[in-house]
């Protein structure tokens, strides 16, 4: 009997170990794909920055168009914003059956909103704009870092990312209670994107913020950024829900986002920020930054120096003195293939100025040769778009440092190693080690740091000797059952107490028999299947590159490679940092001799992904790989967010994009393309037609 018990225990431990290994592999897949998408977002903006820097307009119309593409996010004057987003002229029809708001708001308004949203009702656009106006007025009065105390409430509840998952917010309020004078909440950013009810979350949070301004605190996250919203769904959600007034609502939300505080301090001992810190994080500087100036930390803009006829190019708030970003990928900018040497010391500003001018001139010469532009046509770009560093005023350098401070606290992640280095996985912010955490905590007399920004399987996780706590409140973030959500409660002793949960509508509808039949194995299998489906899509999107990588290992042209070489080649192309040898059984049917017929494997991927029979697999691969970027580009061009772009906008955009793709198209060719893809002949291009244009041009190559 004893031996039997030991044997059963051994089998059970192996079973649990296998489940845990599968769970970790699944998690790695989801997280790697998510971070790769964030890298794509950064690269896309580098692409637009490259166009702004190097595309030579053939007319003033083209020059104006390029300038307009990326200025929609600029801060507008107070009076202009008030006039544009005027809500008082809007009438609420008698047929409206949704909730009503009147200001100043009362607790009953907040509870009525919660009930209305549970019933899938929609708040009228007049009330939404009115709420945003009042929220903006309140936020403008707040400091960059909010200071709260546990002396005035029994406890402080800190929530992490919600990402448009309203059910998680409902569950938090159900378990923990609504905000009140005795129940303080801190919501640590990333309220929007990915989920389908981001706007409802904003409305609920802003309402409680106005009802209980001393008990509800909102921090800005990296997704409270209109350029990020273009890619991850929030912009699209607002326009679908408020077709007529959606653009006004988006403009107002964009302005509200830049007024959100950057962090919160509890009892001057616990710092709450969305992303993390760096070795240069300066809380004193963060307290003084004009945060509303940074409508986005991802986008570039041009500004003119007041006393000179020159323009200083700023990308991500940083003064640019090179023709291309030093961090830009070579595939994004052909001019980036040759990197300038490291800059001389800033102590010698005159020397640095000469270095800048020489570098700029060299880069422009390379670009001129690439695009076959004459010197006279390029002349104004040589010195009119750049300025020597001796002419830069102090505020420009200050603004660069301020931008870095904000970027670091919104985008950074902790790492187990010592030190601080660039966050190459996300493409923004940095990785900071336990020594950096200890240094910052000691400098500002803090006990520990609370941050969000990363999905954790249990909803929370400690690191850096329990000095850094990650809290993530969106459950089922990747897939139903993939992770729990959590929030943390802090009392006067500042000891964290966690509450975990899993908001799952599907689980609520299961019968008792179905619930009893659910096992950890079946739950992991469901999540695992979703992860591998996403991974196979990623593999298919890089079929051509994978084929080339496989052939490099197939020196004799046998059509077969070893499984070890398969794993190495896949990682060299996708760069996801995944344990491919461990994942191989789920992706590859192993041959008896330990080799893989790689072309047959690639064909199987194509057969699995091919959803439209008339599109050849090569074209489908390109569309899979570029769809997210194309959709983001479409939304940037679609300045009024109507879901349509005009012929003129499409014409100018396609000239830019085709030049980036090295596709030669004449003006007549683009005009014919525009006419041919306007299938409904309404004079506008929708996204499906835009995608079709991309497909047609690639097909003609």
Automatic annotation (TrEMBL):
<dbReference type="Pfam" id="PF00612">
    <property type="entry name" value="IQ"/>
</dbReference>
<dbReference type="InterPro" id="IPR011992">
    <property type="entry name" value="EF-hand-dom_pair"/>
</dbReference>
<dbReference type="GO" id="GO:0005506">
    <property type="term" value="F:iron ion binding"/>
</dbReference>
<comment type="similarity">
    <text>Belongs to the PPP phosphatase family.</text>
</comment>
<dbReference type="GO" id="GO:0051879">
    <property type="term" value="F:Hsp90 protein binding"/>
</dbReference>
<keyword id="KW-0378">Hydrolase</keyword>
<dbReference type="GO" id="GO:0030145">
    <property type="term" value="F:manganese ion binding"/>
</dbReference>
<dbReference type="Pfam" id="PF00149">
    <property type="entry name" value="Metallophos"/>
</dbReference>
<keyword id="KW-0479">Metal-binding</keyword>
<feature type="domain" description="EF-hand">
    <location>
        <begin position="665"/>
        <end position="700"/>
    </location>
</feature>
<keyword id="KW-0464">Manganese</keyword>
<dbReference type="InterPro" id="IPR013235">
    <property type="entry name" value="PPP_dom"/>
</dbReference>
<dbReference type="GO" id="GO:0050906">
    <property type="term" value="P:detection of stimulus involved in sensory perception"/>
</dbReference>
<dbReference type="InterPro" id="IPR000048">
    <property type="entry name" value="IQ_motif_EF-hand-BS"/>
</dbReference>
<dbReference type="InterPro" id="IPR004843">
    <property type="entry name" value="Calcineurin-like_PHP"/>
</dbReference>
<dbReference type="InterPro" id="IPR012008">
    <property type="entry name" value="Ser/Thr-Pase_EF-hand_contain"/>
</dbReference>
<dbReference type="InterPro" id="IPR018247">
    <property type="entry name" value="EF_Hand_1_Ca_BS"/>
</dbReference>
<feature type="region of interest" description="Disordered">
    <location>
        <begin position="315"/>
        <end position="345"/>
    </location>
</feature>
<keyword id="KW-0677">Repeat</keyword>
<dbReference type="GO" id="GO:0005509">
    <property type="term" value="F:calcium ion binding"/>
</dbReference>
<feature type="domain" description="EF-hand">
    <location>
        <begin position="541"/>
        <end position="576"/>
    </location>
</feature>
<feature type="domain" description="EF-hand">
    <location>
        <begin position="625"/>
        <end position="660"/>
    </location>
</feature>
<dbReference type="InterPro" id="IPR006186">
    <property type="entry name" value="Ser/Thr-sp_prot-phosphatase"/>
</dbReference>
<dbReference type="GO" id="GO:0004722">
    <property type="term" value="F:protein serine/threonine phosphatase activity"/>
</dbReference>
<protein>
    <recommendedName>
        <fullName>Serine/threonine-protein phosphatase</fullName>
        <ecNumber>3.1.3.16</ecNumber>
    </recommendedName>
</protein>
<keyword id="KW-0106">Calcium</keyword>
<dbReference type="InterPro" id="IPR029052">
    <property type="entry name" value="Metallo-depent_PP-like"/>
</dbReference>
<dbReference type="GO" id="GO:0043409">
    <property type="term" value="P:negative regulation of MAPK cascade"/>
</dbReference>
<dbReference type="Pfam" id="PF13499">
    <property type="entry name" value="EF-hand_7"/>
</dbReference>
<dbReference type="InterPro" id="IPR051134">
    <property type="entry name" value="PPP_phosphatase"/>
</dbReference>
<dbReference type="InterPro" id="IPR002048">
    <property type="entry name" value="EF_hand_dom"/>
</dbReference>
<dbReference type="Pfam" id="PF08321">
    <property type="entry name" value="PPP5"/>
</dbReference>
<feature type="compositionally biased region" description="Polar residues">
    <location>
        <begin position="325"/>
        <end position="340"/>
    </location>
</feature>
């Amino acid at each position: 009997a004893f031996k039997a018990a030991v044997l059963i225990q051994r089998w059970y431990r192996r079973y649990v170990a296998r489940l845990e290994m599968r769970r970790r592999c699944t998690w790695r897949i989801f997280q790697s794909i998510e971070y790769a998408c964030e890298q794509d977002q950064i690269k896309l903006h580098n692409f637009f920055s490259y166009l702004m820097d190097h595309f030579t307009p053939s007319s003033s119309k083209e020059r104006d168009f390029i300038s307009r593409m990326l200025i929609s996010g600029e801060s507008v004057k107070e009076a202009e914003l008030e006039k544009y987003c005027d809500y008082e002229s809007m009438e609420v029809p008698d047929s409206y059956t949704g909730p009503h708001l009147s200001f100043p708001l009362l607790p009953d308004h907040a509870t009525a909103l919660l009930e209305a949203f549970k019933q899938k009702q929609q708040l009228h656009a007049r009330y939404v704009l009115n709420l945003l106006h009042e929220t903006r007025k309140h936020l403008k009065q707040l400091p960059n870092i909010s200071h709260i105390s546990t002396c005035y409430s029994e406890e402080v509840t800190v929530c992490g990312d919600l990402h448009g998952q309203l059910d998680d917010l409902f569950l938090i309020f159900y378990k923990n209670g609504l905000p009140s004078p005795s129940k303080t909440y801190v919501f640590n950013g990333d309220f929007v994107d990915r989920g389908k009810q981001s706007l409802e979350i904003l409305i609920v949070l802003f309402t409680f913020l106005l009802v209980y301004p001393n008990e509800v605190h909102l921090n800005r996250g990296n997704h409270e950024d209109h350029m990020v919203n273009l890619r991850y769904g929030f912009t699209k959600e607002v326009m679908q829900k408020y077709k007529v007034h959606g653009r006004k609502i988006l403009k107002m939300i964009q302005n509200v986002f830049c007024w959100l505080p950057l962090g919160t301090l509890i009892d001057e001992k616990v710092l709450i920020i969305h992303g993390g810190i760096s070795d240069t994080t300066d809380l004193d500087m963060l307290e003084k930054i004009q945060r509303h100036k940074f409508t986005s930390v991802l986008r570039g803009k041009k500004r003119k120096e007041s006393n000179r006829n020159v323009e200083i190019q700023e990308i991500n708030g940083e003064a640019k003195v090179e023709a291309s970003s030093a961090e830009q990928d070579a595939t994004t900018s052909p001019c980036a293939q040759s990197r300038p040497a490291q800059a001389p010391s800033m102590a010698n500003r005159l020397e640095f100025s000469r270095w800048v001018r020489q570098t700029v001139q060299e880069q422009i010469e390379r670009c001129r040769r690439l695009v076959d532009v004459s010197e006279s046509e390029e002349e104004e770009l040589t010195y009119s778009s750049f300025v020597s560093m001796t002419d830069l005023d102090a505020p420009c350098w200050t603004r660069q440092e301020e931008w870095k401070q904000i970027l670091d606290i919104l985008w950074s992640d902790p790492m187990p190693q010592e030190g601080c280095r660039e966050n190459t996985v996300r493409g923004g912010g940095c990785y900071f080690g336990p020594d950096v955490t200890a240094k910052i905590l000691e400098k500002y007399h803090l006990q520990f740091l609370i941050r969000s920004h990363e999905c954790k399987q249990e909803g929370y996780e400690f690191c850096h000797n329990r000095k850094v706590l990650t809290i993530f409140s969106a459950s089922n973030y990747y897939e139903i059952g993939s992770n729990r959500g959590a929030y943390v409660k802090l009392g006067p002793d500042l000891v964290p107490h966690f509450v975990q949960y899993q908001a799952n509508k599907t689980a609520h509808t299961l019968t008792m028999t179905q619930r009893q039949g659910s096992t950890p194995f079946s739950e992991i299998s469901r999540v695992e299947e979703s992860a591998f489906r996403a991974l196979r899509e990623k593999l298919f999107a890089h079929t051509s590159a994978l084929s080339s990588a496989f052939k490099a290992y197939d020196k004799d042209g046998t059509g077969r490679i070893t499984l070890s070489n398969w794993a190495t080649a896949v990682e060299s192309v996708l760069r996801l940092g995944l344990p491919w040898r461990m994942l191989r059984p789920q992706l590859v049917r192993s041959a008896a001799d330990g080799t893989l017929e790689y072309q047959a494997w690639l064909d199987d991927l194509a057969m699995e992904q091919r959803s439209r029979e008339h599109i050849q697999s090569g074209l489908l691969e390109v569309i899979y790989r570029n769809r997210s970027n194309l959709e983001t580009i479409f939304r940037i061009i679609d300045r009024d967010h109507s879901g349509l772009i005009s012929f003129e906008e499409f014409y100018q955009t396609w000239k830019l994009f085709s030049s980036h793709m090295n596709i030669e198209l004449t003006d007549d060719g683009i005009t014919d393309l525009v006419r041919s893809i306007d299938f409904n002949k309404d004079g506008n291009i929708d996204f499906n037609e835009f995608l079709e244009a991309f497909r047609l041009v690639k097909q003609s190559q």
